[in-house]
């Protein structure tokens, strides 16, 4: 069920529990700003999620409230994971779903990294 992008942060969301280690995840990378883990229901050969360590509902919330250090650290972590997975050549896709029209289901900002295969056009209608 898509979320409302303007909702307040819910500490009990599934990715908050993953960050706290209350739910297992297949860790790909971690630093001071971000945690990356493979998606439980992969939509491509490689499907990894990168989440900020801070409590942000969505890209909208993060871009409005996060510090420059948090934003810089998170963006660098996404790039690092893609490079570490060997995706730069032949390429990959980033996706952040936001709110109802974006189809966002988990109310903690996450960037999807898709790769390992040709990914087709941008949007399925
Ligand atoms: P959204 O639709 O919010 O952009 O994407 C949420 C993603 O989180 C989905 O791709 C879904 O498969 C993934 N997901 C949901 N619950 C879990 C979980 O408990 N563990 C992992 N690794 N991924 C999850």
Core attributes:
about 120 residues, alpha+beta, HIT family, subunit A, 5-stranded antiparallel beta sheet, binds guanosine-5'-monophosphate
Structural class: alpha+beta
Mean pLDDT: 96
Output the strand order for the largest sheet.
Answer: 1-2-3-5-4
Low-confidence runs: none
Q: Measured on Cα atoms, how large is the radius of gyration?
A: 14 Å
Strand content: 15-25%
> How many strands?
5
Largest sheet: 5 strands, antiparallel
The shape is: globular
Instruction: Name the ligand types.
Output: guanosine-5'-monophosphate
- N/C terminus separation: 18 Å
Q: Going by CATH, what is the homologous superfamily?
A: HIT-like
By DSSP (H or I, 4+ residues per run), the number of helices equals 4
For the record, the count of structural domains works out to 1
Helix content: 25-40%
User: In the CATH hierarchy, what is the class?
Assistant: Alpha Beta
Order of helices and strands: HEEEHHEHE
Which CATH architecture is right? 2-Layer Sandwich
Task: Describe the fold and architecture.
With 125 residues, this protein is α+β, with helices and mostly antiparallel strands. The chain has one domain: HIT family, subunit A (2-Layer Sandwich), CATH 3.30.428.10. Helices cover 27% and strands 19% of the residues. The protein has a 5-stranded antiparallel sheet with strand order 1-2-3-5-4, covered by helices on one side. The longest helix is centred in the middle third of the chain and has 17 residues. The structure holds guanosine-5'-monophosphate. Guanosine-5'-monophosphate (5GP) binds next to loops. InterPro entries: Histidine_triad_CS (IPR019808), Histidine_triad_HIT (IPR001310), HIT-like (IPR011146), HIT-like_sf (IPR036265). This is HIT domain-containing protein. GO terms for molecular function: catalytic activity.
